[in-house]
């Protein structure tokens, strides 16, 4: 009896001596015996990363004792490298005086890159965190952290919308509820965003939400959720759950071809949703019936009010006219629906409001006063 009691005490002491997992069905419980606040190595780049960092920087010091930011180097972009692309996260981290290091721009060089000291050596208090970093973390870096202490803030209710563009694909799908997840990072060989879920929080979004409007909301919710997960880890109360692969969907990266309007298959609500989802990064576009065809970017897209009658002069998808009453180009879409476009840009020229753009229309582009917008050959 004494031996049995002693064994139970020994097991309990082992449980409380350091971070590891207890399995309970499909759940895993994290126990942390040291209670030392986390030192965070934070990988990110864009505005989403910035919104996350702003919250974490103000986190209680008994949860996060310090943050070291990792982001990308400045890059020359555009024609002949005339523009300099600077990571927004770099500017923010320097503004709030956080230590900052940079990863190589070449993906092939990232595998041999070493994180700054002290993160180049394992430690029970070290936490690897990513938020919209946009690149896979190499195994050599993941291995420096305990599996439960390499986390990603993902703006969807995982396993829904795994991948590079969850916010854009949420709006594209017309959803009014999304969320944020804190997930464990695994080796990329197993796939993107497949790790255990340490926390989730649903978030309701407006039916007219744009990428720009939901990005800061989801970033803030994700950062606050992470702080709660870390608090639970330090208290030995955090629980993770493996994902169900059968429920997984993919949020594909937005490519130019995804923004090429197909007037014959996209109805007006879809065109308007994709504008709200994609236009911050890539505008929707069509083409003019020139020789060769000229790209026409479509900005400021909206739906007509429900009581607006269809324009009788528009008889097939891709037909377009200028409507003085609406101060917009009205374009016919699939299923006998119309959209309004109030700002357009032809080729490399500057953008123009609808009336000014229509005034520059060439007669040979029109048939009975109607313009036919066309779709380019498959790209």
From TrEMBL:
InterPro entries linked to this entry: Formyl_trans_C, Formyl_transf_N, Formyl_transf_N_sf, Met-tRNA-FMT_N
Gene Ontology CC entries for this record: mitochondrion
Record-level Gene Ontology MF annotations: methionyl-tRNA formyltransferase activity
TM region(s), chain numbering: none
Keyword Transferase: yes
Keyword Protein biosynthesis: yes
Keywords recorded for this protein, A-Z: Protein biosynthesis, Transferase
Signal sequence bounds: none
CDD domains in UniProt: FMT_core_Met-tRNA-FMT_N
UniProt domain Formyl transferase C-terminal: residue ranges: 254-361
Gene3D superfamilies hit by this protein: 3.40.50.12230
EC number(s) on file: 2.1.2.9
Formyl transferase N-terminal domain span: 39-230
Stretches assigned to coiled coil: none
Family the UniProt entry places it in: Belongs to the Fmt family.
Protein name: methionyl-tRNA formyltransferase
Originating species: Botryobasidium botryosum (strain FD-172 SS1)
